[in-house]
Amino acid sequence: MKEDWTTPIPANVAAWHFLSRTSFGPQAADVERVRRGGIERYLDEQLHPEKIDDSEVDRKIASLPTLTMGAAELMEDFPPRKQQTNPASRLPMREGNAAATPSEGGASMQAESPMQPAMEDGRPRQIILELAREQFWRAAYGQRQLQEVMVHFWMNHFNIYAAKGVDKWLLTSFEQDAIRPNALGKFDALLAATAQSPAMLFYLDNWLSVSPNLASGGFFARPANRPPAAAERRGLNENYGRELMELHTLGVDGGYTQHDVREVARCFTGWTIDRPRQGGGFIFRPRLHDDGEKVVLGHKIKAGGGVEDGMEVLQLLAAHPSTAHFISLKLCRHFVADDPPAAVVDRATHTFQQTQGDIRAVLKSILTSREFNSQAAFRAKVKSPFEVVASSLRTLDGETDGGAPLMMSIVRMGQPLFLYQAPTGFSDRASSWINSGTLLARMNFALALAANRIRGTRLTFPGSTPADDGQTVLDELARRTLGGSVSPETRAAVLKSLDNLKGVAGGDLRAVPKTTVVAALLLGSPEFQRR
Amino acid sequence: MAISRRYFLKNSGLTLFGAAFVPTFLRRAAWALDQPAAGARKKVLVAIFQRGAADGLNIVVPFGEREYYALRPSIAIPEPAKAAGDSPSALDLDGFFGLHPSLASLKPLFDARHLAVVHAAGSPDSTRSHFDAQDYMESATPGVKSTPDGWLNRFLQTAPHTDATPFRAVAFASTTPCTLMGAAPALCTQDLGTFHLGGKANSPGRGVQLLEGAFEEMYASASDRLLCSTAGETFEAISTLQRIQMDAYQPENGAAYPRGPLGRSLQQVAQLIKSDVGLEVAFAEAGGWDHHVNEGGVKGQLAGRLQEFGDALAAFHKDMGDRMADVTVLTMSEFGRTARENGNRGTDHGHAHAMFVLGGAVKGGKVYGDWPGLKDHQLHEGRDLALTTDFRDVFAEVAMRHLAVKDPASIFPGYQVSSARFRGFLG
Predict the structure, then answer these.
(1) Which residues of B touch A433 (CB under 8 A)?
(2) Is the domain of B66 the same as that of B1?
(3) With an 8 Å Cβ cutoff, is A304 touching chain B?
(4) Contact A414 B195 (CB under 8 A)
(5) In this complex, do A86 and B175 lie within 8 Å of one another by their Cβ atoms?
(6) Are residues A215 and A358 in the same domain?
(7) What is the ipTM of this complex?
(8) Chain B CA closest to residue A87
(9) What average pLDDT does the structure give for chain B?
(10) Do residue B83 and residue B189 come from a single domain?
(11) How far, in Å, CA of A514 to CA of A450, rounded?
């Protein structure tokens, strides 16, 4: 079947469709508001989250101690488990080899059992769990839904693996200081905030990168009788330079070479972390910087620029046409379809360039496009596991502490939050979310949630009385969870199993209310897996 | 099991999908209804991906090369000890190469000629991006990012089995690895022991069975192709796993799998093979090789990863016993690491690395490949171990000589496979 990007979506589901993309799950009141006031008005409100009162969820979040603590405080209050003897401890502290302990470095970085050994050890795990709770709460109960959708988008775009070294103490600040304030702002500001965040400097190793000339003498030559300091032996690290272009800005086919990677890495030498073991912030160390001339993407960066070299590179990349296209494509993939039509991507790219990367403007161009509002876009996206959980809670009045059992649910469905190792982040495509194992996990989540068997989480939507017939229960729950748009096959299967249940004598489901059975089947249905 | 297959056939019916779309599992199920269960022994390939770029030079150590020690002053593995009781050192394989001492459990397999090494192997593409390089290796099309499917999936496509089960290809991973992406179905799970609906593995209550039936029904008839066909695989697999009782498995011959995902994956692979449920391709992952900082030498981070890696492979070999005759295990990593250690006592992204081949038909006890040397001018781009064996020649040798592929052209698009380039570890 050829996809139809021109036929508009039927009016009765248009508001539902819009909210299923711009929020973590349409709620009746919002659907009504969009129907009455129109999409544009609602969108304009959501694009200015600072004007939306979100004090209720803010109060809830204020109860999470780690969310109000800085990195320095977190490191002091949530120290790592006693470190084993390791070579790192012999390296000078002032060079900050905080990362290099056996329990935190590469050896434990493989994706393992759900919470991974690196995260099971010691109290730092609580920091990551509280960050997850904040995200569950904001998604389920926050009013600034579009901002929250974008926080998730950018956290994944600028992915950081929480189990790598000190990143578990730095991720909270990354989310709160770098991502959230810029999620709907200008792309260059967002990019700069990530570039200077200790979390990113650490994750992509830039904090270790020093001028390749450092050891070779010259003005800074050390006396011959002194051994080289760690920084002098370290040399250039290309990791950040490469991922900055491949993943954060230009895209892998964005027109850069290995030579550009090296030149960009030279520009960022000296961009490091002040006292990384104590949770210090970004610092530029001129002594470690390569102050020679560089050429990045054909653009000359004069010698002697110091910290400005890096800023110049960020501006250059943020303004590059490849970046406009790459970011627009990823946004369209998230909001429209896995393979969005070129027209909507091109329009978004154009807007990006015209507005110097105004994320609000780009979003508006996508969300008000013909393609977004077309028949082909309806349920074109498979929900991520986080979206499955959040939309379940939102549509069936879930109460949750957002704790570890809920986190485990999305891990089983294939989304270990904050623990995706590679800087690519999770793929935003149906084929990567759905396989026989994760689909089973989705059905199991539906059963567990509907039966209130997830510790710390329960659904509180109005139950049914035994007098309610199956049809009534089904209609009500289908309206809540699926906007009423449910296939005849799913309807038939639900009604049939309600029928069969009557025949289960003394079985384990005899006393289970109809609502539980219907909720389980609808949350696990094919329709609910999509947005 | 038969009920679930028949259910699909009766209620969704092939006609419901029209001629254009008949999901694989339905075609298969239609055929399988009149066939005995897949019981014949099959050749099995177990592919293990070391994600993160494993340091081949410290795994299979060229201790006979002086340059090696010059390049790695703080992390080199000492040459084999002259006397027992000396401090840990490389385990001599052939007077030039030695295994990292943490791989001691693999040494007897090498000595007994079950285990071979192909050194200086890898991808001819010189990308140093993990992601690109993994994609290239898994698609077996270096330099081509647009390849939509993985090489093992294409193998499955070229040798279709009408009696294939959902266990023909199993990936132990959280998401389907690129290696197995494509038109042929592959089961993906982190742990088969948890592969069931509801809380209990072997005794689902009547209620759970009822809900399972309802889910089966709504997915079987869904117009959503991806979800429909994936669900078909899911339900068929659940039935089989109930039958073979995953959680009751006892490894044989005194094999003890190490804790951790690789050990668990390989134990479940062993169980699937012995249960004759139709496994032909298994994929497992072993992560944590990206040691830019403090890689360690005889001890340290790499040593820790290798301990688990070697012990898992050795336990699998022991557990499988005679059934190893039908099995080849092949290990791979997206690229190797710099020949020189860096200033952080680690290594950075490099080029060629070392692959292991283990199995009954393997002509082991030998390190295959031409050794390119580690002198400055011999290094790839002046920094990495150069490549002398294209990984596709290793894959193709396994495909043709183990999996009996006759025409590998469609598995390795754009590559002229020639047995003249095979290293000969399989005959």
Answers:
(1) 175
(2) no
(3) no
(4) no
(5) no
(6) yes
(7) 0.88
(8) B294
(9) 88
(10) yes
(11) 11
pLDDT for A362-401, tens place per residue? 999 999 999 999 999 999 999 999 999 999 999 999 999 9
Q: What is the pTM of this model?
A: 0.81
Give me the residues of chain A with pLDDT under 50, please: 1, 82-118, 120-121, 217-220
Q: Which residue of A has its CA nearest to B238?
A: A440
Residue A300 lies in a domain: yes
- Structure confidence by residue, pLDDT tens digits, A410-420: 988 989 899 88
Give the closest of A99, A258, A421 to B293, CB-based.
A99
pLDDT score of A11: 87
- Same domain for B69 and B159, yes or no, is yes
Looking at the structure, tell me whether residues A405 and A360 fall in a common domain. Answer: no
| Interface membership of B104 toward A (CB under 8 Å) | no
Whether A436 sits inside 8 A of B181 (CB atoms) is no
B131 and B80 in one domain? yes
Choose among B164, B136, B425, B426: nearest CA to B281: B164
Q: Does A319 touch chain B (CB under 8 A)?
A: no
DSSP A339-355: S--HHHHHHHHHHHHHT
**pLDDT surpassing 70 at residue B34:** no
Main-chain phi, psi angles of B389, to 5 degrees: -130, 120
Token representation of residue B300:
């340290």
What tokens does A396 get?
């069936």
Q: Over A151-173, what HEC string results?
A: HHHHHHHCCCCCCCCCHHHHHHH
Q: Give contacts of B 153-172 with A, CB under 8 A.
A: 166
DSSP of B37-58: ---S---EEEEEEETT---HHH
**What is residue A118's predicted lDDT score, i.e. its pLDDT?**
42
